[in-house]
Design a protein that fits this description.
mainly alpha, about 0% strand, flat, membrane, transmembrane, transmembrane helix
């Protein structure tokens, strides 16, 4: 790998592909800059939400008391 100091995984590649898709949609359908930025922010938020792990220990802890 040429840039071995950049630690990119498959999830980063998928996020990069989705950003390119948003850029292509922006150019084809003539979206404004704001629509492009909002779509990129939505992709980033969904990416971060997909990485969140639930805490299974405390899900129903209030029922066990």
């Amino acid at each position: 790998m040429i840039y071995s100091y950049i630690k990119l995984g498959p999830r980063d590649g998928i996020m990069l592909i989705s950003v390119f898709i948003m850029l292509i949609l922006t150019l084809v359908f003539k979206w404004s800059v704001w629509e492009f930025l909002f779509s990129i922010v939505a992709v980033i938020i969904s990416f971060l939400a997909g990485n969140m792990k639930s805490n299974d220990k405390n899900v129903l802890a209030f029922l066990k008391k």
